[in-house]
Amino acid sequence: MRGTGFTGERLHEGAELFRVDLARHKAAYRFAAERAASARVLDLGCGSGYGTAELAKAASSAIGVDRVSPDSSACRGVARYVRSDLNHLSLAPACFDLIVSFQVIEHLRDPTEYLKGIGRLLAAGGTALITTPNRLTSDGENPYHVHEYLADELAECLSGHFHKVEMRGVGASPPVARYLDARLRHIRRITRLDPLRLRRRIPRGLAEWLFARFAVLVRRGIQAGEGLPEVSWRDFPIGPVDDACIDLLAICREPIPPSTA
Q1: Are 205 and 131 spatial neighbours (Cβ–Cβ below 8 Å)?
Q2: Per-residue pLDDT tens for 215-258?
Q3: What does the alpha-carbon distance between residue 23 and residue 40 come to, in Å, rounded to a whole number?
Q4: Mean pLDDT on 200-215
């Protein structure tokens, strides 16, 4: 299966300009991999598939689902991939011990069916891990994100679908924090050219096309100036949630049956 073209939102293994972004996402996958031993794992919204491939090394089985095909490099291992709309999954109920869905919920105007689907697919005693950007630290410029969450808001949303919700936060090491500060400065230099915020009114397709180009431009600017830091997943520690975390991570257990949700 072939991957899709660069969008600025979907990350691809080996993309040098986006290595910090990749490490950020891999921190969540590493957290999940520690809980995936011998588990039946579903990666819901797997993107280019590199995370599913990593989970498959520990899991008894791993399936990645997205509406586009994964990169060919992700298909060389034992992970399996399914193309599907996340709200219309034709998978057997209660068949996954671990469901991960990283950086997906912010793309949904109404996550109700998506969360019901996760609950339906989760086996008894299973765990769902959900990440999303922290609205307090987000630059707010991604046109693919239709709703970004505060920690309490996300916890409340998820508590309508799971009896147990534990909130964590993804932090940033000093090198990552400096990179994020530089990225925000570059973004603000660009957005100052649009004081009337016309970018919010243009057709979505054009907004997404511009976002992809500016995502590259911003990172090239950092590379030429401050330089891109050498980082790994360890530069994104996961701990208690607070206002400074860059991502929210929710650990969800015990789905509420649809009739009572």
Answers
A1: no
A2: 999 999 999 999 999 999 999 999 999 999 999 999 999 999 87
A3: 24
A4: 93
Phi, psi of 214 (to 5 degrees): -70, -30
The structure tokens 């598939």 sit at 49
Listed as own residue / partner, the contacts of 14-20 with beta carbons closer than 8 Å and 24 or more positions apart are 14/73, 16/228, 17/216, 17/219, 17/220, 17/223, 17/228, 18/219, 19/228, 19/231, 20/176, 20/179, 20/228, 20/229, 20/231
Distance, CA of 191 to CA of 176 (rounded, Å)? 22
Q: Are the C-beta atoms of 98 and 207 separated by less than 8 Å?
A: no
Angle (CA) 110-112-115 rounded to 5° is 125
| pLDDT confidence bin for 103, thresholds 50/70/90 | very high
Give the CB-side neighbour count of residue 234, counting CA atoms within 13 A: 2
Written as one letter, the residue type at 250 is: A
Q: Which two tokens stand for residue 96?
A: 């996954």
Helix segments in 112-159, DSSP class H: 112-121, 151-159
H helix or E strand, kind and range, residue 210: helix 204-224
- Alpha-carbon distance 4 to 9, whole Å? 11
Point out which residues pair with 247 in neighbouring strands. 133, 170
